[in-house]
């Protein structure tokens, strides 16, 4: 599981599927998902999306990149990025950026 987490961090800007991750780890999807979830409390793709959102927050906080530019760093499109971001951060990337600009 630790090796998978390192792999996810190294590929956080990519669109990585569960099948690709399992192939790298040499496990079946069901076996890997069960092991990963039991160890971390999160499914592999949920964990990976959390890493992506954390990275996006860093970009929003520390750079002048546009949200659209950040969204293409690992997400298939801007709308999916906003949906995933809001799921974990309970606000849209736009609202997050405004909050960061105010502070």
Structure, explained:
- It contains 7 helices and no strands.
- The N and C termini lie far apart (37 Å).
- The mean pLDDT is 92.
- With 103 residues, the chain is mainly α.
- The longest helix is centred in the middle third of the chain and has 19 residues, at 44-62.
Please specify the SSE layout and strand pairing:
Elements: H1 2-10, H2 18-25, H3 29-40, H4 44-62, H5 67-71, H6 78-89, H7 93-102
Helix pairs in contact: 4-6
Identify low-pLDDT runs.
none
Number of E-type strands:
0
Number of helices: 7
Rg from C-alpha positions?
15 Å
The helix/strand order is HHHHHHH
Please state roughly what percent of the residues sit in beta strands, choosing from under 5%, 5-15%, 15-25%, 25-35%, 35-45% or over 45%.
under 5%
Main β-sheet description: none
Find the structural class using helix and strand composition.
mainly alpha
Q: Give the overall shape, derived from the CA principal axes.
A: elongated
* Mean pLDDT level: 92
Spatial gap, N to C terminus: 37 Å
Tell me the helix content: over 70%
């Amino acid at each position: 599981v630790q090796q998978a987490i390192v792999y996810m961090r190294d590929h956080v800007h990519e669109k990585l599927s569960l099948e690709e991750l399992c192939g790298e780890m040499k496990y079946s999807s069901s076996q890997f998902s069960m092991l990963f979830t039991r160890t971390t409390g999160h499914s592999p793709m949920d964990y990976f999306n959390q890493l992506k959102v954390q990275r996006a927050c860093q970009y929003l906080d520390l750079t002048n990149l546009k949200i659209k530019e950040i969204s293409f760093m690992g997400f298939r499109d801007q709308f999916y990025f906003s949906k995933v971001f809001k799921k974990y951060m309970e606000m849209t990337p736009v609202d997050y950026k405004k909050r960061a600009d105010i502070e």
